[in-house]
């Protein structure tokens, strides 16, 4: 196969507005309705090239606005002439697409990612200007409609490096055979990898523009504040976490990352014991359950999500890997103010993608990472690489006087003693039962068998720990006194200088 010609472009980005580009007025109205005042760096760099039908391979950090960068030009072109665009993403880009299409009722989108194999009537008859899908789902459609992709004018592979690393190599090769000879191809990712190069060679024909944006993998310190807390063990780790939530030092929407699936349920049980509501996301959950949790989180049902990385969560369950289960990437969480690495990530890439869930676009955010002595080598590696990239020290040590948290430590110690393997197993079983209750396929069964539904509802009550007293969740006044006397309401000092200058708590103001 002849390799496409490659041009490398380093854009010179200035201060432009959306109206500076040749974008339809109705589309500008939809952009304004979302509160977007000016394009991000990646959007400003891609707009003109995408409008000119250039093949683009762009690397931009998580949360930089990549989705809008390719969607806005493609929607604009669809207004002028009938086009078919095929969009691939780890989960869904449909939310933003629907908002852009609100003032354009003559354009239609079809989200195959939400359709089941039973909905063949949609696959066989429906047509749309925009098709959002995963590789496996589009091949199912092609098995019914062989010419479904024959008129594709634009192909977008978002988070492109994940498509091959998640095992989609065969699906992508099969898809290529169904595409027309000529189309525009846009590949975007937070990292440029060998997988990206393989996809470029497979799907791109003609010249390719590779965009190297003048930005780091993470936002600057004026947008993203990063802290690291040293703790000796799990008792201290959970005590500090609970204290910050109960004393409202962490406020707003928060994602807590852990390194495996059992830790998701353990952390949820601990927080629940202290009256803190949360949702769980991990790669062992069915897709419908993950979508349900994301929607609840985005709609404000709870402000805390406990998530495990797709790769880390699969170490104990290699046979249950779900290609579409990425948590730290490819999921649209809304308005995340804080990311907490309860378990320190095992690589710099994992750290970047986790922390990248906050401070997205032009919003500000805070990242807090816990680190035990055993995790210290991971921290040292991440710090060295991130500090080198940013040109300064950005992950700031955040000291906790743990002796002043004795009351929290004692309570957490009791909770952890009740959180054994059997309890975690029971919590995971509850999740399976909840999925059965939400299953659309079982609704008719429950309608005909109301007694079975009642029994299932009774057995799906949340798992709770058998602690000595339910009052363990209460925080008496004396537990807050050591903090209330501090000008920053926190038992902490951030070592920004050798003199340990006392700073305001990073979580004391709403983000």
From TrEMBL:
Catalytic activity: ATP + H2O = ADP + phosphate + H(+)
Keyword terms: ATP-binding, Helicase, Hydrolase, Nucleotide-binding, RNA-binding
A matching Pfam family: Helicase_C
Enzyme class: hydrolase
Stretches assigned to the DEAD-box RNA helicase Q domain: 16-44
Placement of sequence motif Q motif: 16-44
Signal peptide per UniProt: none
Sequence ranges assigned to domain Helicase C-terminal in this UniProt record: 223-403
InterPro entries reported for this sequence: DEAD/DEAH_box_helicase_dom, DEAD_box_RNA_helicase, Helicase_ATP-bd, Helicase_C-like, P-loop_NTPase, RNA_helicase_DEAD_Q_motif
Gene3D superfamilies assigned to the protein according to its UniProt record, in alphabetical order: P-loop containing nucleotide triphosphate hydrolases
Record-level GO cellular component terms: cytosol
Start and end residues of each Helicase ATP-binding domain: 47-210
EC number: 3.6.4.13
GO molecular function: ATP binding; hydrolase activity; RNA binding; RNA helicase activity
Homology family: Belongs to the DEAD box helicase family. DDX56/DBP9 subfamily.
Protein name: RNA helicase
Organism whose genome encodes this protein: Heligmosomoides polygyrus
Taxon lineage: Eukaryota, Metazoa, Ecdysozoa, Nematoda, Chromadorea
């Amino acid at each position: 196969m002849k390799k496409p010609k490659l041009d490398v472009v380093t854009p010179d980005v200035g201060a432009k507005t959306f109206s500076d580009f040749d974008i339809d007025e109705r589309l500008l109205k939809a952009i304004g309705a979302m509160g977007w005042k000016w394009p991000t760096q990646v959007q400003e760099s891609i707009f003109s090239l995408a409008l000119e039908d250039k093949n683009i391979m762009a690397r931009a950090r998580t949360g930089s606005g990549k989705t809008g960068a390719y969607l806005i030009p493609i929607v604009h072109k669809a207004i002028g002439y009938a086009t078919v665009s095929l969009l691939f993403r780890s989960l869904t880009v449909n939310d933003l697409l629907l908002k852009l299409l609100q003032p354009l009722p003559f354009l239609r989108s079809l989200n195959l990612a939400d359709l089941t194999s039973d909905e063949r009537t949609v696959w066989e008859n429906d047509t749309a200007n925009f098709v959002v899908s995963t590789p496996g789902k589009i091949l199912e459609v092609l098995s019914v409609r062989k010419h479904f992709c024959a008129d594709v004018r634009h192909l977008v592979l978002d988070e492109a490096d994940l498509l091959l690393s998640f095992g989609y190599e065969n699906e992508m090769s099969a898809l290529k055979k169904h595409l027309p000879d000529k189309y525009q191809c846009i590949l975007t990712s937070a990292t440029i990898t060998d997988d990206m190069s393989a996809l470029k060679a497979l799907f791109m024909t003609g010249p390719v523009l590779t965009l190297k944006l003048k930005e780091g993998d993470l936002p600057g310190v004026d947008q993203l504040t990063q802290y690291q807390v040293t703790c000796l063990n799990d008792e201290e780790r959970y005590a500090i976490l609970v204290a910050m939530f109960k004393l409202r030092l962490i406020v707003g929407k928060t994602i807590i990352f852990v390194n495996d699936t059992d830790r998701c349920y353990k952390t949820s049980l601990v927080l629940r014991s202290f009256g803190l509501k949360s949702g769980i996301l991990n790669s062992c959950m069915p897709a419908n359950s993950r979508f349900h949790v994301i929607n609840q989180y985005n709609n404000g049902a709870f402000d805390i999500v406990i998530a495990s990385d797709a790769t880390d969560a699969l170490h104990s369950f290699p046979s249950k890997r779900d290609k579409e289960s990425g948590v730290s990437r490819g999921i649209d969480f809304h308005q995340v103010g804080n990311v907490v690495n309860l378990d320190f990530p095992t690589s710099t890439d994992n750290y970047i993608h986790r922390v990248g869930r906050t401070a997205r676009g032009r919003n500000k955010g805070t990242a807090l990472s816990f680190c035990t002595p055993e995790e210290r080598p991971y921290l040292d590696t991440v710090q060295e690489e991130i500090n080198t990239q940013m040109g300064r020290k950005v992950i700031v040590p955040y000291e906790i006087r743990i002796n002043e948290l004795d009351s929290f430590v004692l309570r957490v110690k009791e909770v952890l003693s009740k959180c054994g393997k059997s309890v975690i197993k029971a919590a995971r079983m509850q999740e399976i039962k909840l999925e059965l209750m939400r299953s659309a396929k079982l609704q008719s069964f429950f309608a005909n068998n109301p007694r079975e539904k009642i029994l299932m509802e009774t057995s799906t009550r949340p798992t709770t720990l058998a602690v000595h007293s339910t009052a363990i969740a209460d925080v008496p006044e004396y537990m807050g006194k050591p903090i209330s006397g501090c000008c920053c309401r926190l038992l902490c000092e951030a070592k920004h200088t050798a003199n340990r200058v006392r700073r305001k708590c990073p979580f004391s103001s709403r983000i």
